[in-house]
Design brief:
By secondary structure, the protein is an all-alpha fold. It is 71% helix and 0% strand. The chain contains 4 helices and no strands.
């Protein structure tokens, strides 16, 4: 699944991505990956869910500072246990 890349759209006036900053595009990609992961977890497709969950967390890690990452992990631990588990899994995989 790592060879899957985002599709390419023609750039045209009024397009959905046209007026967004790079940060806004990155946030949209993170949110999309999170919800796709959640959906596949719900229907029992664990491997697909993990793929999109990893993608979500990797994008988060690449876009925020260590302080922000620590705060996010703290919030996730108590409010979003699935995201916390994904962050812990990736940390162990990377380190």
């Amino acid at each position: 699944m790592h060879n899957i890349s985002p599709s390419a759209y023609r750039i045209h006036q009024g397009g959905a991505w046209q007026g967004l900053s790079e940060d806004e595009k990155n946030i949209a990609a993170i949110v999309t990956s999170f919800w796709i992961s959640t959906y596949y977890k719900k229907i029992g497709e664990k491997n697909v869910s993990l793929f999109y969950g990893e993608r979500c967390v990797e994008r988060l890690i690449n876009s925020i500072s260590l302080r922000e990452l620590f705060l996010m992990k703290l919030v996730a631990k108590y409010k979003l246990p699935f995201l916390y588990r994904m962050m812990t899994y990736l940390k162990n995989k990377i380190l």
